[in-house]
Amino acid sequence: MRLVIAKCSVDYAGRLSAHLPLATRLLMVKSDGSLLVHSDGGSYKPLNWMSPPCTLSLIDPDDDQADAGVTEIWKVTQAKTADMLIVSIHEILHDSAHELGIDPGLQKDGVEAHLQVLLAEQIDLLGDGHTLVRREYMTAIGPVDILARDSKGAAVAVELKRRGDIDGVEQLTRYLELMNRDPHLAPVTGVFAAQEIKPQARTLAEDRGIRCLVLDYDAMRGLDDSASRLF
Amino acid sequence: MRLVIAKCSVDYAGRLSAHLPLATRLLMVKSDGSLLVHSDGGSYKPLNWMSPPCTLSLIDPDDDQADAGVTEIWKVTQAKTADMLIVSIHEILHDSAHELGIDPGLQKDGVEAHLQVLLAEQIDLLGDGHTLVRREYMTAIGPVDILARDSKGAAVAVELKRRGDIDGVEQLTRYLELMNRDPHLAPVTGVFAAQEIKPQARTLAEDRGIRCLVLDYDAMRGLDDSASRLF
DNA sequence: GACTAAATTTCGGTA
DNA sequence: TACCGAAGTTTAGTC
Known about the structure:
alpha+beta, Protein Yojf, Chain: A, Trna Endonuclease, Chain: A, domain 1, 5-stranded mixed β-sheet, 5 helices, DNA-binding
């Protein structure tokens, strides 16, 4: 990534035409050649940009442009759409390059993780008399989302998903198979809990004796609001 | 604007919960306190961000965090929504601050300007036998978008708008009044051209003998495609 | 891979 | 100032 602070004007020609008058801005050149032109305010949207895949090439300013104070011109083009971004640079105030590497990317564990916390707090949603053993109960093949005990003290393993699909049922099945070999736990029953459970997944789960539980995230969140306000 | 390249992990708690694992990223702190976390790829949307108005405060890492390698923690909060962004910094690789000043902002002269170019090229959209005199024909009270002549050689003044509103009709009326005083031009007829003409504007225009012309931007653009490919 | 729907959307314009 | 709709939308999930 290259970061340039420069006094520049910018012209875009593509799906629309747009112009940025001469001012000092941040030019962010990403490693895929894409360019973002940011001002020192506003929200996350750049003033102007070119999406990847695109190529950046330098152009020498002609005499008129040189007379107007342009020292270099960046031409960013996108092969696919024939869009074009022209950055006319008058002065570079900062210029640095950095190796960032590929990014592992955003984990929107948001809903599932939050659901896990909420269901742990509202464990009786599993049924009257249920008690929480713990969240992320570790097994040899990975953590079970929630381990609880029913009113009779029998172990209940809960697999939580935002969208309940067949994959989740298979996952829970593997956990149950393993846990039921453990004499301290067996017999373990399974609960497949999700905001939304696909018909195929429900059929498979119930065929295997796994109970399905549809969770109302908003309602659970609403009950938790008092706790949230403590932050 | 402050630019920081740092090895960091990021957590967001607000309308959803999200997590960014430890990696090297760009942290852009704008003068309004807002923060953008960018990776070296993807499009213009940051991996994570906090919209203004918000405040950034530094927190000392506790012992556990310090043991994990966290050297400093940024806490960015938004007053209104109670959203919170936590940046746990492990290592700062670059840190610089820059004065950018306020930005004049984007001029999307795009559609209207482009329409003007296209209509000038396709001047016969005004009617058979029309010829272009020039775009931006200057008068004492400002430039008329397009001046043309019809098949009989009579002057035609065109006011172009993306959305044809009453204002535009009034504007054209003023131009026509002025131009019709010029013996070299008179008699000048008016054409109010827009992608969309509001009923009120159409009524007013036709009442004043101004012809209304609805332009099909996409079709005009399509005809222009061959020319665009020359770039 | 194309298509559809949501987004921590943002950004205009209009009532 | 609040609501509504488009965006050079982007992004994630489904078919």
